[in-house]
Design brief:
Two copies of one chain form a homodimer. With 187 residues, chain A is mostly helical. Helices cover 67% and strands 7% of the residues of chain A. Chain A has a three-stranded antiparallel beta sheet. The interface between A and B is large, with 66 and 65 residues. Chain A binds a DNA duplex (30 and 30 nucleotides) through helix 2 and helix 3. Chains A, B: It holds the Pfam family PadR.
DNA sequence: GATTGACATGTCATTGCTTACATGTCACCT
DNA sequence: AGGTGACATGTAAGCAATGACATGTCAATC
């Protein structure tokens, strides 16, 4: 269901777009919020056309099909935004690793945490680059107010920073434990 | 793959357990980290038995099968913890709603944010209850140090708090925008 | 003229996951 | 004796998602 919504949202933002454009859109702006490859997008667009949520407005060069959203599509999107209670299945590989970490020896656990931290630093850098790019783009036009995707980007940035902090604190905590263990048990 | 890991992890923690026990375990402790119903767990246990990662150690009353982890299973779990780079597909319905929020009118967007906030407050309460229960349990025994699931619970709590903060700030920001709009356009 | 690479759209097999169906045991209460 | 509800294990249909396969156009470079 959510894939449909994401597509309808992008289509609203773009006015009209091809499957290819939307695939690129997923790689860029929405990537940190929802993911989908072209092999999922093309069939979904076909289904949505059959359901009357989008239409092929025009066909361009190289078999390019340009979709645009229909009133039914707009209604569907609106209804989801207003009425949908997010219950997204909590599935996080990072959290799972964190959960199981005490199964490892302290040294090994520290290594894993360091790797996780590096990973998060990369992600933070990506998101900050994205924000910088957005700000540069919006400075050119005189647009003001909250723009498409801004709130989600802010949320993403905050969450990555929180995760980083957690990793730091977890490393410190395990580090303390390791040294007291050494002191208590100098084998 | 991650389901296998979660099962191996729980099995290590419990020593040995039936499919039913593991299903309950998913509802309780791991719920905020990974989810799975019994219809996914039973077949997976069968496959893992075939692959030699677990064995049926005993059969109890009511057809109860008690599984325990094998050395191969332990190795698999260890290898994943140490070597797996978490790349978990970023798919969050909350973030998607946040992303698309500017498509709504300010008033409607504020309503959605309030609902999200309530939702997050419930989740926060759940996690805090879980933490309280854990602390009570560990106070009875004299266990010290970092326990199974503690780090993940801490991460979860921090992330929910961050999300709540974000919601509050987003509400404030949209609220300001709404009042300036009224002032500029008193139709 | 040939190759490279971005553009552009699709299918298919497999795996993961959800929901519903289906069956049966055992303890306790009435 | 019958009902309820926790215990216990499975199967099957169908949707969602991934990764690999497959095909073809067009512009620019070599």
């Amino acid at each position: 269901m959510s894939l449909r919504i994401a597509l309808l949202g992008l289509l609203t933002a773009y006015g009209s777009a091809s499957g290819y454009d939307l695939t690129k859109g997923f790689e860029r702006s929405v990537a940190h919020v929802w993911q989908a490859g072209h092999s999922q997008i093309y069939p979904e667009l076909a289904k949505m056309t059959a359901d009357g949520l989008v239409t092929v407005a025009a066909e361009g060069a190289r078999g390019r099909k340009i979709y645009s959203i229909t009133p039914e599509g707009r209604a569907e999107l609106r209804a989801w935004l207003i009425g949908h209670d997010p219950s997204g299945p909590a599935r996080s590989e990072v959290a799972l690793q964190a959960f199981l970490l005490p199964l490892l020896e302290t040294r090994e656990a520290l290594d894993v945490l360091e790797r996780l931290k590096t990973h998060m630093e990369h992600k933070l850098a990506e998101l900050e680059a994205l924000r910088a790019a957005k700000q540069a783009a919006s400075a050119q036009e005189g647009t003001s107010g909250v723009r498409f995707g801004d709130l989600a980007l802010d949320l993403g940035l905050r969450q990555v920073r929180t995760s980083l902090q957690w990793a730091d604190d977890a490393i410190a905590q395990l580090g303390r434990q390791a040294t007291t263990e050494e002191g208590a048990d100098p084998s």
